[in-house]
Amino acid sequence: MAVTANAVSRPYQEEEQEDPREHLMFDPKPRGEMNGMVMESMHTTNWKFWVVTILLTVVVVTCLFGAWGYMIAKGLGVAGVNRPAYWGIFLTNVVFWIGISHAGTFISALLRVMKVEIRRPFTRAAELMTTFGLVQAGLSVFMHLGRVWRSYWLFPYPNQRTIWPDFHSPLMWDFMAINTYLLASTMYLFLPLLPDLAMARDRSTGWRKNVYRILSLGFRGTEGEWKNLHSAMNIFAFAIIPVMFSVHTIVAWDFAMATRPGWASSVFGPYFVIGALHSGIGAVLLVLFVIRSTMKHMKYFLRPEHFDFLGKLSLIISFTWAYFFFNDYLVPWYGGDKWEKLLLDFHEHGPLAWVWMTMLICNIVIPWAILWNKKWRRKPWLMGIIGFVINIGMWIERYVIIPISLTITRMPFTWRIYKPGIEIPLTIGTFALFMLLYMLASRLIPLIPVWEVQEGQEAHTLRKVGKATIPAVSEID
Amino acid sequence: MDNPVQPLEAGVFEEINTGKWGMVIDQDLCTGCQACVAACAMENNLSFVGEEDLAYGRAMHWIRIERFWNGQYPEVNTEFQPVLCQQCGHAPCEPVCPVYASVHSPSEDVNLQVYNRCVGTRYCANNCPYQARVFNWRDWQRPEPLNNQFNPDVTVRQRGVMEKCTFCIQRIHHVEDKAKSENREIQDGEMVPACAQACPADAIIFGRIDDPNSRVSKAARNNRGFKLLEDLGTLPRVSYLKGGSPHGRNS
Lengths: 477, 251
What we know:
The complex is a heterodimer of chains A (477) and B (251). Chain A is mainly alpha-helical. Chain A has a two-stranded antiparallel sheet. Chain A has one domain: Formate dehydrogenase/DMSO reductase domain (Formate dehydrogenase/DMSO reductase fold). Chain A has 17 helices and two strands. The longest helix of chain A has 34 residues, at 223-256. Helix content of chain B is 18%, strand content 17%. A four-stranded mixed β-sheet of chain B has the order 8-1-10-9. Chain B has a two-stranded antiparallel ribbon with strand order 2-3. A two-stranded antiparallel ribbon of chain B has the order 4-5. The radius of gyration of chain B is 18 Å and the shape is globular. By secondary structure, chain B is of the alpha+beta class. The two termini of chain B are 34 Å apart. Chains A and B meet through helix 5 of A and strand 2, helix 3 and strand 6 of B.
């Protein structure tokens, strides 16, 4: 009788030692060289850059300003809005762009406060997205108005009519919140930019030097200046987080305060915040992929580890979004209100059910199917695609909430399906303007916060403990 | 004041919370002839939007006839429901306007839209559960000879503003002024809005609801009375009567 001995487990294998140089923080370069790399990435352009810039400018001029002018002259009838869908793609775009702008602050401020070291090279790219995203959101608000030439009536200013805006209206809260966020996020973008602007000032000539000299406010990098800058950034980072959460909650209140079926939901506040983060992190992934593959030297700064980290974050956010979606579905379904039930039926089985299904596929199925895998998370091109897909899904989510849900009213005689009209070129125009602003800014603003990377590299050391090498971080504050 | 108290009978106006003017629409009498729609359009200078916009849900009617088919052919029964602004005592359209264009008038106690204050956010229309508000999507052209019949008592509206039924407030003011100059109270039946005036079946009754003996108050007490979407607590000033024979005045 033969006796065979089987191994109960696979023989012990030594885990493959990872090269610490794969991490940006353990792959330091001399300061001068790194500064030079960032400067060069700003200065280097090729013919492709200018072709894309010119194309985008043409699109912005025709699709955004041309079409908008036409709409102002002719009235909103050229758009697809009707009764009962009084709000259409313009408001979809507002919510979408505010959502995009959220990730900038989330990634930058929250991760900075939490001292997440991996944030260092991509905070700037995310913050820029916040500012330019808010510009698109603001423009979309004005596009939506029936009489945009009277839009200044929304500002509380002393006027001859002695009428103050009505602060009972959620739109007024929204208007104030977006303005606050735009101001706060622009300042928050500017503060960590100061040392880099000063660096650029010292390394450029001609008109650029003048621009940087004005923008850098005479920052020279003395001990006292750094101390003040750090405390200012700290205050802003802490203060902007509640602002960020409140802004999208207030945007959600525009809907949640209304009497419409499908809108009057108390979960909309946090649901919108999570939705904003979902699309925002997707957008950061996409932007980082584009920057990495088009700009010089970016492969040194933006590495697979960063895509890996953002991919994990995206997966967690996707889980959370799915939970909130389920919650927002379950409660009306279980409650059994007649109108809510009609609306849910319309979402799932109506003529636009494919839109609803696409939303679920883009927001849940595809991220869950791909983001669990570390190998895939480390592929920048794949993460760029995932970011794009998530953004399609999140745009559709807002589309489902606004024009599709508006189709079902409490007066069934008025039900009518919304078909977009001039909204389509205008939407393309806002996207083109965002890309154009980003591309032009990438020629003027260092997209990598060099000082932050250098500070991180100073703080990271490899320590020998016996035979093992252990990465260590020392706190700088 | 703020708690929407359930009325004793469904159609009865809440004495405390309701204002001066009210309307009762008898659905059993309505023939769906659309005379009220035409009369309203002429009285209030409504735009003519044309076939295409009308089919796309951009009709500018302040009153519309909703037609419902009950049953299967040939046992089919038609039901008409004229819907207009319900002049809610607790109106959802009012607080959402950021520029005070949708307001409650204290003197007539109706819900008014100030056209030249409106910037066109359209939040009020979204929040109106009756879908009674209409928006000027364009500056529509008036075909000949309709351009010759503007009512001088009513403002014309520009593209980009919201509008809705006013209970013919220009007529209310006219009647009030007349009664004041003759030093008397307004009599019941003296004030007739365009829709009620045009209704051949006399299905629309208008009058003072703060007077329990007025024709409109008596009609509202009819046991066929109900209000639209009453559960929302909007306290409408329009009551509907329904439930008799589908073909006549017997209830």
